[in-house]
Amino acid sequence: MIECLARARLVPLVAPASLVAVLALAQVNTNESSVRHDFLTRLVAAAIERTHHSVRYVPGYVKIPYPGGDVPADTGVCTDEVVRAYRAVGVDLQKEVHEDMRRNFSAYPFRWRWLSWRPDANIDHRRVPNLMVFFSRKGEKLAITSRAEDYTPGDLVTWDLAGHLPHIGIVVDQKSASGRYMIVHNIGQGPRMEDVLFNWKITGHYRYFGPSARR
After folding, report:
1. pLDDT of residue 213 exceeding 50
2. CB under 8 Å, gap of 24 or more: what pairs does 66-74 form?
3. CATH code given to domain 2-213
4. I need a labelling partner for 24 at 20 to 30 A (CA). Which of 38, 177, 179, 194 fits?
5. Rg of the chain's alpha carbons, rounded to an integer?
6. What is the per-residue pLDDT across 37-59, written as a single tens digit (0 to 9) for each?
């Protein structure tokens, strides 16, 4: 009987401690969610800002500095706009992709036409198939659906254009007359914001918050 009473007295002491732990975890999750939302907001703003730049579509191989390297500011392809948007919010995809490929080269696609026998910091981050693997490994790989509402601002989408040509763009927070969020991408006329989410076959859907948010 005394032992039972002792246990009964302990219950109120244990329960508050458990509640504190639950509340602390909830606060951590709330803070993390807020940080991620802020990151995506800044990324979207950076992507939209890119549409004010005049960029010629030049897909050639270019030797660039590392890290922080970029092709000439008035040139580039679809991947360069993604790289530039992320760099504007403090994430260097050239460095992040190169470091992951250096450690895990076999995880990335080999293309004989690239003559890619080893990581190359000049070009690896500028290839859509490499970014697809990188975002899958270091970010969130999301479902590919035909529902526009499943694609939200800050998401990254890849497509297969005619002739198996890969393409990539960023979902932004501006909607078209269709009610869909628009995409910032460069398909040949420089960075533009357009309603093209379902114009081509979607091959990938990702969300990446930078190296500090790795899983």
Report:
1. yes
2. 66/94, 66/95, 66/98, 66/121, 66/122, 67/92, 67/94, 67/95, 67/98, 67/121, 68/92, 68/94, 68/95, 69/94, 69/121, 69/122, 70/94, 71/126
3. 3.90.1720.10
4. 38
5. 22
6. 999 999 999 999 999 999 999 99
